[in-house]
Design goal:
The chain is an alpha/beta fold and about 200 residues long. The protein contains 7 helices and 5 strands. The protein has a single domain, classed as 2-Layer Sandwich (Nucleotidyltransferase, domain 5). Strands 3-2-1-4-5 form a 5-stranded mixed sheet, sandwiched between helices. Strand 2 and strand 3 form a beta hairpin.
């Protein structure tokens, strides 16, 4: 309950560009190749896709979104290692939020999402520099639904990746186009779950 209330308190904070609240999550995307050419949709007939497919591996999508500003940053990686996470976090600190004084980062407590990952990837001085840019806020165990980045990932999957894609390059192109479109709209999440709701 304490972690839930901490997350909800963070979501109540007003927008402040010096102290942005950013939500981060990641999701695998299975790469799947068609084994037979689908039959295209025709008037009065639905598209037909064979149930058989060929597995072509998996890629990982890292998502960070700033709910109050209506922006998100997405990267597609071949893996989801501590190194991949640490480099994504470094990018947030040094590129997207280089002028921020402190970044509040809401994320789940996956074992790769920890300051120790920074020390495994970077020299201690650099790891500490990156760590000091953030205030990590973890969602409770079994409470990852409190992370607004999870909502954004669901929107991404539903609007753009809800079909068979067999290579990481196409996933990257689709994700980039989706991200630019959604950022141009400054699409925000209408978060309504409050501390009062949590205490019922």
């Amino acid at each position: 309950m304490a972690q839930m209330e901490q997350v909800l308190d963070v979501y109540k904070e007003p927008y402040n560009q010096d102290y942005p609240v950013v939500c981060m999550d990641e999701s695998p995307k299975q790469l799947i190749k068609e084994t037979r050419v689908p039959i295209k949709m025709k008037p009065g007939k639905e598209k037909k896709v064979d149930f058989e497919y060929e597995r072509k591996g998996v890629c990982n999508i890292f998502m960070a979104n700033e709910p109050l500003k209506g922006v998100r940053y997405v990267e597609v990686k071949e893996r989801k290692t501590k190194k991949d996470w640490a480099n994504f976090i470094k990018g947030l600190a040094d590129n997207q939020y280089k002028d921020a004084k402190k970044i509040t980062l809401v994320m789940d407590n996956l074992n790769t999402h920890s300051p120790s990952a920074l020390y495994e990837v970077f020299e201690p001085k650099e790891a500490k520099r990156i760590w000091d840019r953030f205030n990590f806020i973890y969602t409770p165990k079994h409470g990852s639904w409190l992370n607004m980045a999870e909502i954004e990932l669901n929107v991404l999957n539903g609007q753009c990746l809800n079909r068979r894609i067999d290579n990481i390059e196409t996933v990257e192109e689709e994700v980039k186009a989706w991200c630019e479109s959604r950022n141009n709209m400054k699409a925000k999440i209408n978060w309504q779950f409050t501390t009062k709701d949590a205490r019922i």
